[in-house]
Amino acid sequence: MKYTLRQLEIFLAVAKEMHFARGAEVLHISQPTVSKEIRRLEHALRVKLFERTTRSAQLTRAGEALVEDATDLMVAAARLGEKALMFSPERVKSLRVIASPSIVNRLLPEVISQAERQLPSLTIEDIPVDTGSVASRLASEGGDIGIGRFLETPSGFNKQTLVHEPVLVAISAIHPLAGRKSISLPDLGDLPLLLWPRDLNPDYYDYLIQICRDSGLTPLILVGPPLIAGARSYLIAENRAFSLIPQSAASHLSNSLRTVQLKTPAYLPLEMLWMKRDPREIVPEVLDIIRLKAAALAEAEDG
Fold for domain 90-303? Predict the structure, then answer.
């Protein structure tokens, strides 16, 4: 029984589109080629995979039963290729770290500095992404390590919580409460909460809303871009909104903003993703550096 990965790819495309011509379009090949390779696959497997009509291609019972296994084989083949690439000269001594902006600004400089001293042959490429995009961009950018908050765990990755960071209130420097050591959110009255769209990171969004509700505030939401401390920070500076941010982001705010502790403390998880069974010897050392630097920064900020 001999069949090829290309034949399985064609089989899955036709199964998804339920049409030979549309399957050919998706794969950018001719319909005769699709038909020929499906016939060869059926011959190799000794089963009929599709019931063909002029309008559609319906999976047979055998075809339906084989879709999942064919998908698993394609995923395994892709992982085989990815793992082989890790042994190429350009990958053995290089890592791509996908991280949200506050991590790129605060934690990663400490990590890269330590890595340069401890692992001088290593090259680390840091790739900043918007809130909620770390996990998805790991795959699309070919990333090795992801760092962010409320991360989904992609297939083939491990996840670990590094530290829990205090949540701070970001308000205008001219706000009457800007000089306080801590505030209760209801004291902000009807000042809107500046927050990114929920669909970018639903768990993170819901957690911040719950912090408000637990304190007795049901906030009016002012939807802004993923980087709250960026182009829309003028809304906070002009006392038209407030925001809730991790403590590590506070040092990168403009002078027109102030951060104040919550009277009832709340914390955000800082999480790390990395590939399972990564064969490169350098990876465990880098993961340890990230863990140590995250813990050290958290301790320094608490102090």
Answer: D-Maltodextrin-Binding Protein; domain 2 (3.40.190)
